[in-house]
Each structure stands twice: as structure tokens, then as C-alpha cells.
């Protein structure tokens, strides 16, 4: 994995460390990251995204505490062996629920027709 796989939105209301942690969790849940896969160093992510290294370190530490990542001497942070198990569809959808609720609320506020919003979502997902 390289630092470009992580997307950070500095203007988002969610703290950057949480954005990083949530994205790593999703990559593990979807199977894009497998047990033993290495993560970019704190320094690499911080430099690529122009964020404080302590922010990245906080995300990694949280994931390590949760058992998603483990620190291997000489290799850095890797996906923990016990963290990688295929997640049921319902569990993966649950991770998406807050974002879907936010989109639904904004679409309603903008008085957008649901079929147009869904069509656009489909376009984005098919990229």
C-alpha cells in the first residue's frame, strides 16, 4: 500500500486521524488490505498529505489498540493477522451508513430528486 490510497479532506468536519483510521478499517474490511500487508510509514503519509506526523501516528496507534494493525520490528505497521476476516455485507454497509445519511439529508435540503442522486451515485461507483 502506498500513501496515495489514503484520501484526506482537511475541510471535513471529521478529524484527520479519524479519516485515516476509518479508511484503513474499510480497506481491511473490503479485503483490499490483507494480513501482513505493510502500511506506509507515518512520515510518508504525513509528507504526502502535508499533515502533522503526530496525526498519522494517532490513527495508527488507535488501529493498533483495536487489533487492526500490529507493529513489526523492522517492517513498521502491518495489518494484523486476526483483523482480516471477510466481513458480511451488512457489516460493510453499516460502515457506509453515516455517509449515506449525510448525502440523503443534503439531497433533501437541496430538493434534489432521489432518482437523479441515485443515478449520479451509480456513475461515481462505476468509475
UniProtKB/TrEMBL annotation:
Entry keyword set: DNA-binding, Transcription, Transcription regulation
PROSITE patterns: HTH_GNTR
Gene3D superfamilies: Winged helix-like DNA-binding domain superfamily/Winged helix DNA-binding domain (1.10.10.10)
Entry's transmembrane regions: none
Start and end residues of each HTH gntR-type domain: 14-82
GO MF entries: DNA binding; DNA-binding transcription factor activity
Coiled-coil annotated residue ranges, if any: none
PANTHER family in the record: GNTR-FAMILY TRANSCRIPTIONAL REGULATOR, HTH-TYPE TRANSCRIPTIONAL REPRESSOR YTRA
Protein name: GntR family transcriptional regulator
Organism: Pseudomarimonas arenosa
